[in-house]
Amino acid sequence: MQAHEIDYHIYGEEMQYVEIELDPQEIVIAEAGSFMMMDNNIQMETIFGDGSGQENGLFGKLLSAGKRVLTGESLFMTAFINQNNTKSKVSFASPYPGKIIPIDLTQFGGKFICQKDSFLCAAKGVSVGIEFSKKLGRGLFGGEGFIMQKIEGDGLAFVHTGGTLAKKELAAGEILKVDTGCIVGFTKNVDYDIEFIGGIKNSIFGGEGLFYATLRGPGTVYVQSLPFSRLADRIIASAPKAGGNSRDEGSLLGGLGSLLDGDRRF
Question: What PANTHER family has UniProt attached to this entry (predicted)?
């Protein structure tokens, strides 16, 4: 086994965090901003990319980091090393309400494909890179679901989801149609493509976008009910406009005033 063998425990219901127990000299890597707390004997170290390709010198490090830039992530990740002679713990928190999913890559054939923002942390030795699309439709119309990350190796990785999590086991040839932003991830045998919704009324008045993802089995698919982009859009739409009077937002007269002023849209 190449990846470090780590133990973990997930706490909470809607705002979860994962506590990882490290043996002496064991390492876990994590995205910047996901750290929550750690024991005193754990040391933090900033590394290029996910730490893979280090044995190939500077070129290997740049290649590892470059894969992350293509998915819109930072060049760097953080490694947490247990420098103590006994077990120590470090915890990482989900950035918004949802669930944390442990992914044992040995059960998924060494590879799992996920949304670019869903990766939280993993055992040292797990590689995090970009999943290149070979189909034109994904590149032109994929939107949120086009840029996917691949997590490879034989260790544990953790991804986070928004809202309520649904796990679907697809039989061979079985198709699941999903909003592109609602995809969390899927196993490597699942075939993924983009499909046009169709219909003039659907396209103009539907409000659901022009495309959705089709996932064809066999394999496992994880779906989230609340993508972060959807949550952010609702927050932005509800925010008071610059120069507006936020004191009237909760009142009936405030709503009527907005209608009369032409500020309230349907």
Answer: ALTERED INHERITANCE OF MITOCHONDRIA PROTEIN 24, MITOCHONDRIAL, TRYPTOPHAN RNA-BINDING ATTENUATOR PROTEIN-LIKE PROTEIN
How many domains is the chain built from?
A: 1
Q: What is the pLDDT of residues 89-133, one digit of tens each?
A: 999 998 888 999 999 999 999 999 998 788 999 998 898 888 866
Instruction: Report the share of the chain in percent with pLDDT over 70.
Output: 66
Q: What is the pTM of this model?
A: 0.76
The answer to the question of residue 67 being in a domain is yes
**Domain enclosing residue 79, as ranges:** 7-234
Phi, psi of 146, rounded to the nearest 5 degrees: -75, -50
CATH number, residue 147? 3.60.160.10
Q: Say if 124 falls within a structural domain.
A: yes
Lookup: tokens for 113: 């494909």
Residue 30 lies in a domain: yes
